[in-house]
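Lab notebook, bench 4. We co-purified these components, and the gel suggests they stay together. Before we commit to crystallization screens, I want a quick structural picture of the whole thing.
Request: model the full complex, all chains together.
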Amino acid sequence: MAWLVVRLAISMSLLYTASAVFEDQVGKFDWRQQFIGKVRFALFDTHSQASKKLLLATDKNVFASLNSRTGDLFWRHVDKTGPEGHIDALLMYGQDAVVVVGNGRLLRSWETTVGGLKWETVLDTGSFQAAALVGVQDFVKYVAVLKKSAISLHDLSSGSEIWVENLPDSDSVQYQTIYSGGNGLVLVLGVVPNSHIVIVEYKIEDGEIMNKKSVEAAWMSSLESSCAVVSSGILLCVDQITQSLYTLPLQSAEQTEMRQIHLQTLDLEVVSGFRPVLTSTQPNPAQPPLSEFFLQLSPDHHILLQFKDGLIAPLRDFNPAYLAAFATSGERTVAAVMSPKNDTACSINLFSADTGRRHLDTTIIYHMDPNGGKPNRLYVHAFLKKDDSVGYRVMVQTEDLALTFLQQPGRVVWMREEALADVVTMEMVDLPFTGTQAELEGEFGKKAAIQDGLLPMVLKRLSSQFILLQAWLAHLWKLFYDARKPRSSVKNEVTIDVLSRDEFNLQKMMLMVTASGKLFGIDSKSGTILWKQYLENIQPNSVFKLIVQRTTAHFPHPPQCTLLIKNKDTGLGSLYVFNPIFGKKSQISVPALPRPILQTLLLPVIDQDYAKVLLLIDDQYKVTAFPSTKNVLQQLQDTASSIFFYLVDSSQGKLSGFRLRKDLSTELIWEVVIPTEVQKIVAVKGKRANEHVHSQGRVMGDRSVLYKYLNPNLLAVITESTDTHQERSFVGIILIDGVTGRIVHEAVQRKARGPVHFVHSENWVVYVYWNSKFRRNEFSVLELFEGAELYNSTVFSSLDRPHPPQVLQQSYIFPAPINTLEATLTEKGITSRHLLVGLPSGNILSLPKLFLDPRRPEMVSEQSREENLIPYAPEMPIREEWFINYNQTVSRVRGIYTAPSGLESTCLVVAYGLDIYQSRVFPSKQFDVLKDDYDYILISSVLFGLFFATMISKRLAEVKLLNRAWR
Amino acid sequence: MTAPGGGALATRGGATVRRMKWSLELSLGNSSRSRGDRQSKDGDVMYPVGYSDKPVPDTSVQEADRNLVEKRCWDVALGPLKQIPMNLFIMYMSGNTISIFPIMMVCMMAWRPIQALMSMSATFKLLESSSQQWLQGLVYLIGNLLGSALAVYKCQSMGLLPTHSSDWLAFIEPPQRLEIMGGGMVM
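Here is the predicted assembly.
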């Protein structure tokens, strides 16, 4: 019976919290964008003229097919992260794409039209070196995979292994490339650095070694980067030290050393410090390569050369030229060369590969984005036009990972911002008011207004009202104008100029910082990229911290954001200050940071321009203030004694707290050492600065109050044991006061290990760990209460807290692994909280905090029912209707960002990983908004009806009264 | 609906001569008027204005009625007290759950004594004729106060009074923080 009651209670509570998106709400306030990452291999499907496919393999271990007309994804396969899913090579023949995955672990063949897997073969162990298609008599039948110590040949149609052979002397020789010219042989080329080259010939049929020879090459260190095979099996190498080209016929028995051709004899010279690059092309794997090749002598100098009868002749010199690439259509091979036109544009031209003659009318103008990076890869898709001339399209990849697809004469067909596949951190900023709103604000906001006198004030008021009237008329006109057009064409473009805050502040500007150093400003409503800015010279492993110093609330001061970029290698940081709405770099002078920066601290103190003060702490614990005007320094001196900061050094296991001195130096006030031999600090989190807590306590069943312990200075420190044995490993959590260093609470979860995800908010901490004893994920929640009475209800000071809080804890089983955890956030904190759980499946689960309540009773009582507490059940439910992103899964979700909107019920959510998903959640449903299906017509008609009925009956009653008076 | 009929009569009567919508006729000569008809039915004698043919009661106070007045006044004064047992019974029957009927009853119970207390002066006027006016007034007051106390007790037992700290929870402002703190992992 009791169990029945419990079940009933659970189902009732579920009924209350269950909410999902209706079918007609799909895509109404949410959007998803899918990305693939930095392109490593790109191949155009050339086997039919009408094909629109573009195959891409990226450094994010994604293998995808794009529609080359629109840039949309046809299909996408996301492999495992890390080296296990690394795509080593991509080869394509006809409808099949062969991919080598995981350092030569797997060989897969994909059907390119629908993206289905045709076959998969597990390869022998050994690190991957090269792969090549092997053809016999003009027909490609095999794929050869070269590993460090073995070569194997596989059938292209079934993946079955034809043969596998061990390479001779593989411990001394580094085998690096495969070459096959369609003559029944597979050649494996290896090198012993600074000694000689080894060439081994295998027979395709049975893998028999036909020939093996070694050639002196004392100057050579690596084959891969400096050699290419041209013409009918001529190995061509370039060396920058001797400034020479070397040639060697691979299959001739008589020549036993490489022929040296000095570059000087060709009037060429390699720029010092630049490693020259040879680019050859083999249009058909069953045929030998072309005898023409590109030699790159400096970053912007290419030259097209031809190898003929043992001699090398220059065909055409491209100086300057950034990029060059070959492309083949049918029997004709062309070379596309990108050369600078002026400061902002490049021109791409097509040249005939065999003569070096320029094709007429083939120029594509590529306009470089002034806020973007330089182009660094060029992919060419050549095709034969109806008049048998060669047409082409190009895809340009730039340093900032933007893919631009162009066609003649320079029309951008589509563009993809692949930098967004790796978002590091983000913020959301309110949009500014419209011009008219700002005009009104400005009228009353300016300080000078008072001094203006009466008449100018009246004039100013009149003029602003006139502007308002004008804007209103323009708005009416636009409505009228749009109403005549068909609905589909009205879809207005979002641009920076039309951006303005909507009445509920639901539309915001998303600032995204990506690992490549590109910043984006994205409209949260539509997902349109409104501005982008590439920061050059960002080290790949830099650490970013984005800080909003001034919001849009202080018109006419523009909003201001600061990005702290810290170089991991040198430790030095730099500041980039910009306007988050327009993406423009601010003119404000930035303090020089000569010392490595350890941490930052954003103070609620504002300067006379309403910018919050940012403190930067360097490795000598000195503080730099930004902005550092006199006003700010004065304020800092006044408040210095109440400014504290903490630093966590995970390598030394040390937590330390500092207090600011008046001269902007600091003093150490506390230190907690967690011995690194036993456990290491994994993460530390305080509370979010913009979090509001509406209710200071919880109402008990007997109508008394249990006050929350709302310490704004509380830190949650997560530690993991260094011992990873499943019996001895543990996860620890320490709640520590960041001002005094007092340890408020400590808990240890035995037989548990990370990765730990946690959220610290209000008076609770929720964390997830792996229970290695029971092999399951567990949620644990800690809640802190002050007790039945508040110690001090007016001010909170960490220095005066004599009573420790009461701590309650409960744990639950969660039936899925998780990727990330975040809590919803609303304007005033009245709405109940939900936890947003990013699952590896790509779904985002909105889990009511109600379920994670340590006061959930094991036995139902009158009081607990009064409190609406759900009886304790160890299993946490996962319901499909709690997935806020229905089928719009977010691949490899890495972070979730929540921001409050102007509506108390609504919280904006952005989940990012490989994809970006934006939506709104309503943890307590939309209690402050009328429903979508609210029947305005019925209500208003009833209202009007009643109104008229009242009028008429009033009139009738008057007449009747008069008549009665006559009686 | 005699007025339209009268109007019709008037127009019929005045088919040739235009008449006023209404007029006062002091002479009894015209017997075609309906009002005149009614008067003429009562009697043929013409009474002066203000004459009433009903006898006027004797308003002088009789000595024998004194006790009766006294009794009546005590009835008024004890009215609220007599209500109390009834109220107690209703309270017991309605229970402590918060739903529309108990709330309505509580409202009635609270409102009636308050109303009575507000119209105290009118009640005093009523009791003016009694010799024990002040005592009766006091009893009346106590009765009403008891009635309202009963209503308050009912509210209390229903939990409608903000007597618990939880009732004031929403008004507690978040405490102001004195220290500013920040930081994090060493970047």
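Residues 1-16, 31-42 of chain B have pLDDT under 50 and may be disordered. Worth comparing against the SEC data before the next meeting. The interface with chain A takes residues 1-4, 6, 159, 164-167, 169-170, 172-187 of chain B (CB under 8 Å).
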